[in-house]
Structure formats: structure tokens, C-alpha cells
Design goal:
- With about 230 residues, the chain is α/β, with parallel strands linked by helices.
- It has one domain (about 5-230): TIM Barrel (Alpha-Beta Barrel).
- About 45% of the residues lie in helices and about 15% in strands.
- The protein contains 10 helices and 8 strands.
- The chain has helices at about 15-20, 35-50, 65-75, 90-105, 125-130, 135-150, 160-170, 195-200, 210-215, 220-230, and strands spanning about 5-10, 30-35, 55-60, 85, 110-115, 155, 175, 205-210.
- It has an 8-stranded parallel beta barrel with strand order 1-2-3-4-5-6-7-8, surrounded by 6 helices.
- Helix 3 (about 65-75) runs parallel beside helix 4 and helix 6 crosses helix 7.
- The longest helix is centred in the N-terminal third of the chain and has 17 residues, at about 35-50.
- It is globular.
- The protein starts with a strand and ends with a helix.
- The structure holds cytidine-5'-monophosphate.
- The site of cytidine-5'-monophosphate has 17 residues, from strand 8 and helix 9.
Length: about 230
């Protein structure tokens, strides 16, 4: 299992993102480029960060009709990234189309991961706002089952659900888990959170950590704390 810490580069632009990465002298963190940075700086930003030797999770959470998502995946597949994602809520056909579109890349293809239920949502919001009356864990498991059936490599979920996903779909089915906070920190907009140590105990493969690292006085120190709690305790 490739257990690792992925740092979310949620910055408004190139100079902030590169300024942040410049602080890491001895480490080359696996990074996540999301909508904020990608929509401003585009594919050049992805190439520049890849050239610096970072592994990249391109977190654009695609969600549209199958034909449109397959086209988007073909465009993104040209970039040298390690992981991309889409919303499982788009359905099995959408996910299968995306997976097939990536197959053309052969061994160069990135891992394709489905977002199950956003870690900012809790069961009450699902029931009240989205009329999802099933227990949250069951919803996550069903979305994961759909993703597996569609040929995806794994899912984004909360660490609280990672164990159930592995038990149901195997240790090789990857779990990528945001919603990571240290015990003494604020949750912010995240609802389903754990510490890096708890995430490890729950069997998560990758933790995604944004604000606890990017807003720290010493991001390198907090990144290393994540590594030592999650990867090498
Ligand atoms: O700052 P924080 O650690 O909450 O950042 C979490 C990152 O993970 C954000 O970039 C967010 O977009 C992403 N993410 C998430 N929940 C998901 C999928 C992705 O929080 N289900």
C-alpha cells in the first residue's frame, strides 16, 4: 500500500503556490491542485509543478453527462499527473466512460478516484437538503461499489468510512481521505474529521491535508508531523 500525505495547494494563484512550495527544501510533497488554482492558472501550472518533481493529484471533481466527462478526461489525460477524480454522483455510466477514456493512455494513466460524499456534509444535511434518507455510511459504500463496478481505482471519503470501504471492496481499492485535523485545531467547514493518527488506524491510503499545513506558521514542520503520525509512526 502506498500510504502518503497529499498537501492541498488551495491558493489563489501561481506566485502563492510556488512561494509555498519553495519553503520545502528537503521534501517533495505529493500535492493536490484543485479548482481554485487550476481555473486561474490552467495546465501550465500543472506542468510547472510536475517539472519540479512533485507527484500531483488533479482534484477537479468532474460531474456532467458521460460524453462530456469522457472528453474532459481525455484532455486532462495529456497532463503528467498521478491521480484525477470525478463525482460518483454522476452515476456508473459516467464513471465507466471516464475509466475507458483513460485506458487509452496505457501504463501512463493516472489513478482515477470517485468522490463519494463530500466530507463537508453530514447525515443531517444529506437528509434535509438532498433528500438522501439512507445512513451516510451506506451511501458512501454504495457510491464506492458503483465506482468499483465502473473500473475506478478507489474513492475519496472520510477516514471514518475508509475501513468499511476496504472491508467491502478490498485493500487494493484506494481510499483518499480529506477532513484531517489535529486534535487541538478548528474543523472549519469540514464535518467528518479525524487526526492523521486516527486515519492511519482506520487504514486510509492517502490523507489530503490543506489548511492545517498551508495556514501554519511553519508548514514544513506540520507536513513532517503528518508524515510521522501517518506514514512512519
Ligand atoms: O483545508 P482542508 O484540509 O479542509 O482541505 C481539504 C481539501 O480536500 C480541499 O482541497 C478540498 O477541496 C478537498 N476535498 C474535501 N472533501 C472531499 C474531496 C476533496 O475536503 N470529499
Amino acid at each position: 500500500m502506498a500510504r502518503d500525505v497529499i498537501v492541498a495547494l488551495d491558493f489563489p494563484g501561481r506566485s502563492e503556490a510556488l512561494g509555498f512550495l519553495d519553503r520545502f527544501k528537503a521534501d517533495k510533497p505529493f500535492v493536490k491542485i484543485g479548482m481554485e488554482l487550476f481555473y486561474r492558472e490552467g495546465q501550465d501550472m500543472v506542468r510547472e509543478i510536475a517539472m519540479r518533481g512533485h507527484r500531483i493529484f488533479l482534484d477537479l471533481k468532474l460531474h456532467d453527462i458521460p460524453n462530456t466527462v469522457a472528453g474532459a478526461i481525455r484532455s486532462l489525460g495529456q497532463l503528467d499527473v498521478d491521480m484525477i477524480n470525478l463525482h460518483a454522483g454522476g452515476g456508473v455510466q459516467m464513471m465507466r466512460g471516464a475509466s475507458e477514456a483513460l485506458s487509452a493512455l496505457g501504463s501512463r494513466k493516472p489513478l482515477l478516484i470517485a468522490v463519494t460524499v463530500l466530507t463537508s456534509l453530514d447525515e443531517a444535511a444529506l437528509r434535509r437538503e438532498l433528500l438522501v434518507s439512507q445512513p451516510l455510511k451506506q451511501t458512501v459504500l454504495r457510491y464506492a461499489q458503483n465506482a468499483k463496478e465502473a473500473g475506478l481505482d478507489g474513492v475519496v471519503c472520510s477516514p471514518l468510512e475508509a475501513k468499511g470501504v476496504h472491508e467491502a471492496f478490498g485493500q487494493d481499492f484506494i481510499t483518499v481521505t480529506p477532513g484531517i485535523r489535529f486534535a487541538d485545531a478548528h474543523k472549519g467547514d469540514q464535518q467528518r474529521v479525524t487526526t492523521p493518527r486516527e486515519a492511519r488506524a482506520l487504514g486510509t491510503d492517502y490523507i489530503v491535508v490543506g489548511r492545517p499545513i498551508t495556514r501554519a506558521q511553519d508548514p514544513v514542520e506540520v507536513y513532517r508531523r503528518c508524515l510521522s503520525d501517518f506514514v512512519n509512526p
